[in-house]
Amino acid sequence: MDLASVIGTALAVISIVGGHLAEGGHITDIVVPTAALIVVGGTFACMFTNYSMAVVVQSMKDIGKIYMNKEPDYRAMIRQIVDMSSKARREGVLAIERELGTIKDPFLKKALGMVADGMKVNDIKPTLELEIDTATEHMTHSAKFWEAGGAYAPTIGIMGAVMGLIHVMGNLSDPSSLGAGIAVAFVATLYGVGVANLFFLPWGGKLKQRIRDQEIAMELIIEGACAISTGESPLITERKLSIYAMHRKGGAEGGAAAGGEAAAA
Predict the structure, then answer these.
(1) For 78-107, what is each residue's pLDDT tens digit?
(2) Is residue 210 a contact partner of residue 230, using CB atoms and an 8 Å limit?
């Protein structure tokens, strides 16, 4: 679970609702089903029109990656690659094939499988780089989908407010209802701005971070596989891969830990 995403979303909702209640407001003041229908329905209508159904479905699924995905474990990746490099130097690249069943990461397993098959660097690198592009393409569409929602929602919220004010202006004969009617009208603006800035835009931003994390992890794996294929020293391999590990705080420590194993090997 990504605690940052969970805490961020919870804090956003608590802050807005809590601030409203602290000012003496009531929860019913900001719970207006018709405004929610206009803003949420109108925003998703625009998003559906702008993207294919395949992208819509994938974007919905990728919400899980925002809250449930863990950051790539660079430390474990470096440790596995350095260990495989040591085995390959001692026993030959065929020794890697016997260890493939212990590797859970599918991309790492594929990369090392290519090394075990005797493929050269000139074949391994472009093949795996193409897979990076394919793997990140879908998530890129998802990030753009939610960012588009963040752009549409405030405008739809303003439309909802205008519609509410039109309704209010049509009932000027009843002055006692004007205040409540105007308040309800502006709830649509609140919904539009809130949905965009508390949910859609942060979701798009987090998916972009997920994409970059995934790219860094896959690039690390490619570099490690190529190093093993060329018979590079495990210690040199570890030092090279530790640069990728520094993409996240603690990565350098992971590289250092792997370096100890490499030196021992």
Answers:
(1) 888 998 888 888 888 778 888 888 888 889
(2) no
- Give the residue-averaged pLDDT of 201-218: 91
Where do the structural domains in the chain lie, given as residue ranges? 1-31, 32-76+118-264
Q: Which two tokens stand for residue 12?
A: 């956003």
CA-to-CA separations, 243 to 98, 121, 136, 182, 223, in angstroms, rounded: 29, 20, 22, 57, 11
Give the chain as a 3 state SS string.
CCHHHHHHHHHHHHHHHHHHHHCCCCHHHCCCHHHHHHHHHHHHHHHHHHCCHHHHHHHHHCHHHHHCCCCCCHHHHHHHHHHHHHHHHHHCCHHHHHHHHHCCCHHHHHHHHHHHCCCCHHHHHHHHHHHHHHHHHHHHHHHHHHHHHHHHHHHHHHHHHHHHHHHHHCCCCCHHHHHHHHHHHHHHHHHHHHHHHHHHHHHHHHHHHHHHHHHHHHHHHHHHHHHHHCCCCHHHHHHHHHHHHCCCCCHHHHHHHHHHHHHHC
Q: Residue 49 has which token pair?
A: 């029109």
* pLDDT for the residue numbered 262: 38
